[in-house]
């Protein structure tokens, strides 16, 4: 864990943010007293590809998927009167 003072954090913000994004935890201190902790988020990074097709072959969509419940929906919205 790295500690930097406020002045250094302001001066080298881009570099410090990059270090945090790479997994380094950085403490920002004022007069030697820790004030804040800077660390990477668990969110996916920009440009990271999504996992498409990971359930391929495990799920079957019925051929009449778009017609399921059609009669009920027609009745509910006045089609059956």
Shape: elongated
User: What is the total tally of β strands?
Assistant: 3
Distance between the termini: 71 Å
The low-confidence runs, each spanning 5 or more residues with pLDDT under 50, are: none
How large a portion of the residues is in β-strands, by DSSP E? Answer: 15-25%
Name given to the CATH homologous superfamily of the domain at 2-38: YefM-like domain
Number of helices: 3
For the largest beta-sheet, the strand count, sense and barrel status come to: 3 strands, mixed
Class by SSE composition: alpha+beta
What is the CATH fold-level name of the domain at 2-38? YefM-like fold
Order of helical and strand elements: EHHEEH
What is the alpha-carbon Rg in Å?
Answer: 27 Å
What is the CATH architecture assignment of the domain at 2-38? 3-Layer(aba) Sandwich
Widest sheet: strand order? Answer: 1-2-3
CATH top level class name of the domain at 2-38:
Alpha Beta
Mean of pLDDT:
87
Fraction of residues in H or I helices: 25-40%
Summarize the structure.
This protein has 81 residues and is of the alpha+beta class. 27% of the residues lie in helices and 19% in strands.
């Amino acid at each position: 864990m790295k500690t930097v003072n406020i002045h250094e954090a302001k001066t080298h913000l881009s570099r410090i943010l990059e270090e945090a994004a790479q997994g380094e935890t950085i403490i920002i201190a004022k007069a030697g007293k820790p004030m804040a902790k800077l660390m990477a988020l668990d969110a996916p990074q920009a440009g990271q590809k999504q996992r498409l097709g990971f359930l391929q072959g495990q799920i079957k969509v019925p051929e009449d998927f778009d017609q399921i419940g059609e009669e009920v929906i027609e009745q509910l919205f006045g089609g059956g009167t």
